[in-house]
From TrEMBL:
Keyword Signal attached: no
Protein name as it appears in the record: Pyruvate/2-oxoglutarate dehydrogenase complex dihydrolipoamide dehydrogenase (E3) component
Domain called FAD/NAD(P)-binding: residue spans: 4-299
Keywords recorded for this protein, A-Z: FAD, Flavoprotein, Pyruvate
Domain Pyridine nucleotide-disulphide oxidoreductase dimerisation: residue ranges: 321-424
Pfam families associated with the record: Pyr_redox_2, Pyr_redox_dim
Protein family: Belongs to the class-I pyridine nucleotide-disulfide oxidoreductase family.
Cofactor(s) this protein cannot do without: FAD
Top-level division of the source organism's lineage: Bacteria
Signal sequence range: none
InterPro entries, alphabetized: FAD/NAD-bd_sf, FAD/NAD-binding_dom, FAD/NAD-linked_Rdtase_dimer_sf, Pyr_nuc-diS_OxRdtase, Pyr_nucl-diS_OxRdtase_dimer
Amino acid sequence: MDVDVIVLGMGPGGEDVAGRLAEAGLRVAGVEGNLVGGECPYWGCIPSKMMIHAGDLVVLGGRPPDWAPVARRIREEATDDWNDKVAADRFTGKGGHLVRGHGRITGPDEVTVGDQVIRAARGIVIASGSQPAVPPIDGLEGTPYWTNHQAIEAETVPESLIVLGGGAIGVELAQVFSRFGARVTVLEGLDRLVPAEEPEAGELIAKAFVDEGIDVRTGVKIAEVTHGDDGFTLAGVTAERLLVATGRRVDLKALGVGAIGLDESAKAIPVDGRMRAAERVWALGDAVGKGAFTHMSMYHADIIVRQILGEPSYEAEYHAVPRVTFTDPEVGAVGLTEEQARQKGLDVRVAHTDLAASARGWIAQARGFVKLVAADGVLVGATNAGPSGGEVLGLLTLAVHERVPVRRLSQMIYAYPTFHRAVSAALADLDH
């Protein structure tokens, strides 16, 4: 098959690139070994947030914890029972060629899928995504442990669950299953939950979990896992199910990037500001190691499409990457943490305010906080934790992205009584 562009991986970013290029009249081959649409709509963002929303209703609305309608909605509404016909038809309807199977780069401008060789006149876009990173713990291999896939597909709630890993995926799913009746234990190897975020965020989530009956254990090193009739046992804890949520990985060797001169043993593909990895090769999303977020892959996709179509483009910037942990309380963060800013040698100033000290926080009896990290008179990072933490994050992301001076932010009018007004209280500590 001869085409203009090969898109290797049809997750959110890959599908966007492939679809837009096909609409522009290019011959595009989209290669996908799993489901068109990728992780996000089938096992990630969409179904997990359905689960979280349902768990919130259990707590806030006093609804009985009935898992059946949640599982049914995920199966029928979100994933079409893990069938990608709608997404596949959407792409082919734009004129794209969908190639099913594992694609491997076998030479410049060439990808092989099974016994089919595809050649590209303009180049290749690597949009391969990532897979769960499962640690090499003695006794784990060969057991029926869960990754996020099996957790999302679960039709019943286990009586008990161990969550190995206290990052965003681990804590989100831990709270969901706890709210639907599972006895949950979270094991994290580092000294706090969500270790990539501010320490205050991990402390906040841990306190909320303890209040909800979730057993949180940090600083735990796992040497061995055993599995038998009574379930899984590790670190002295036994449970019916084990969810391994210890991060994501990219398999560059399986992609065959050595054929275009890239290091197959690397953790990610190095790219320039225009997402170019090599001559006529671009890469996006998880594969480039700038954050395993759907919004990151879509951001990269736009840059690449503009490059290929010869449209005015821009270089990728990473000083204001937003991310949200969708627990209750919800943690929204952008830019650098305090520790990261200090490691960069910046002259750091920090402000912190308790959400309960704000009028809206007091009214809602909400727990949370706003933490601002500033350097040279502008915000370089911020965290907003509490109800709708990810929504309030929009204000802070814009401020960090555009490097708005703290003085100007403190001169804004903040509606009263709102959760976002707590930002102005934190700014008051910086603007003097």
